[in-house]
UniProtKB/TrEMBL annotation:
SUPFAM superfamilies: Thiolase-like. This is Acetyl-CoA C-acetyltransferase. It comes from Micromonospora chersina. Residues 7-280 form the Thiolase N-terminal domain. Keywords: Acyltransferase, Transferase.
Length: 430
């Protein structure tokens, strides 16, 4: 049996992220993922090469996109003999894709692979309602004019044409991600000021990273955008503090609502890709290794029957991964915690600092403790960059790998919360 091998992160490429219904309003998932992949292929000289596997996905996709990743590969300059498939694990999709590719490389099943993710809320798969859908399918398979007229007679005006619009909500609770997070914010006493400060830092740090040219070799301009469109370098605590709460604004706790458009990640369109390979492949292709993809862990919480917050699964995944890796929470030079909402990042950090949570929920004798906040999301994160659900994992892996490469040594933690009560986490090392 093949022993486990080291997995190299060679680099990444994404397109700038756009605000929903804006620059990329007419771009499809395939267009955007294709653009991110084309940039990666060009950057690393992969044209005409057969890559072991391309794994990517989208959280929201049309039925025509049933084989999205393979279609994108066929439209790319990669050798068409490159296999590809889709995965979907909500906001964890991009990172989970990287884990799948990394595992195959580690086991010696492939030498090189590409992970990616894409999402658009502008081109959401709006479906017709159940009655109309069934009638249209029958209409399509009717063989005679008489049969067609009989089926068509079922189409009564207006009401049946009411579309089913995808909602950013949990099917089992009916609550949006934001409303779930608002409950968690209350549970952990996360105050408004701390959320706004985190949001401000995210914008300031992302802006500074752009100024330094950090993203120059991680991004391909697309449809006129050269930077993430949501970035607001001129935002301030005053502006953020003036915004009205938008989540947790109904029910008995409405007066304590703290989550606004400024301290929540915005609805976003975009795509990202990451190139992973074995050490041997990297050497043969004369490509430097940015970082090693060394550990991963996925967890889920029962937010339906239990009292745990919908987005709290990383609070469980990270300690399990640390235990396996023999590390403490403080053994990191960088922490990349996906900013779904500022309150979510702060609630997760509070849970790791809490002796009760760590004892009762994690079974630990002592809390994981606090982290050095200066090491958290040093180049900004989803509050400033935006969050095209499945594309966030690739953005983070590429960013962290480059940070570690620039530092020359060290370790970085990735933590991504996801719908359905899931959390996907990983460690990169250099
Ligand atoms: C696992 C996970 O990741 S879960 C997370 C999944 N993602 C989500 O749930 C998405 C959550 N976000 C949303 O649903 C939406 O972005 C909302 C509801 C928060 C906001 O939507 P919108 O109201 O359309 O946002 P919009 O961009 O118009 O902002 C509203 C106002 O805030 C202002 N604003 C937003 N951010 C900032 C900022 N950083 N600084 C200053 N002002 C700001 C805007 O300028 C706008 O002001 P205006 O009304 O005067 O024009």
């Amino acid at each position: 049996m093949q022993s486990v091998r080291r997995v190299a992160v060679i680099g990444g490429n994404r397109i700038p992220f756009a605000r929903s219904n804006s620059r990329y309003a007419h771009a499809s998932n395939a267009d955007m993922l294709g653009a991110a992949l084309d940039g990666l292929v060009a950057r690393f000289g992969l044209a005409g090469q057969r890559v072991g596997e391309v794994v990517a996905g989208a959280v929201l996709k049309h039925s025509r996109d049933f084989n999205l990743t393979r279609e994108v590969v066929l439209g790319s300059r990669l050798d068409p003999h490159t296999p590809a498939y889709d995965i979907q694990q909500a906001c964890g999709t991009g990172l989970e894709a990287a884990i799948l590719v990394a595992n195959k490389i580690a086991l010696g099943q492939i030498e090189v692979g590409i992970a990616g993710g894409v999402d658009t809320t502008s081109d959401a798969p709006l479906a017709v309602n159940e009655d109309l859908r069934r009638t249209l399918i029958q209409l399509n398979s009717a063989r005679t004019l008489g049969e067609r007229l009989k089926v068509a007679a079922k189409l009564r005006p207006l009401q049946p044409f009411k579309p089913e619009i995808p909602r950013n909500a949990e099917p089992r609770t009916g609550l949006s991600m934001g409303d779930h997070a608002a409950k968690t914010a209350l549970r952990w006493n996360v105050d408004r000021q701390a959320q706004d400060e985190l949001a401000l830092r995210s914008h300031q740090r992302l802006a500074a990273a752009y100024e330094k040219g950090f993203f120059d070799d991680l991004m391909t301009p697309y449809l006129g955008l050269t930077r993430d469109q949501n970035l607001r370098p001129d935002t301030s605590l005053e502006k953020l503090g003036s915004l009205k709460p938008v989540f947790g604004t109904k029910g008995p706790d409405a007066a304590q609502a703290t989550m606004t458009a400024g301290n929540s990640s915005p609805l976003t369109d975009g795509a990202s890709t990451v190139l992973l390979a074995s050490e041997e492949w990297a050497r043969e292709h004369h490509l430097p290794v940015l970082a090693w993809f060394s550990w991963s862990e996925t967890a889920a919480v029962d937010f339906v029957h239990g009292d745990e917050g919908l987005l709290m699964a990383p609070a469980y995944a990270v300690p399990r991964m640390l235990a396996r890796a023999g590390l403490t929470l403080q053994d990191f030079d960088y922490y990349e915690i996906h900013e779904a909402f500022a309150s979510q990042v702060l609630a997760t950090l509070a849970a790791w600092e809490s002796p009760e949570f760590c004892k009762e929920r994690l079974g630990l004798d002592a809390p994981l403790g606090s982290i050095d906040r200066e090491k958290l999301n040093v180049n900004g994160s989803s509050l400033a960059a935006g969050h095209p659900f499945a594309a966030t994992g690739g953005r983070i892996v590429a960013t962290l790998a480059k940070l570690l490469d620039q530092k020359g040594s060290g370790r970085g933690l990735i933590s991504i919360c996801a719908a359905g009560g899931q959390g996907v986490t990983a460690i990169l090392e250099r």
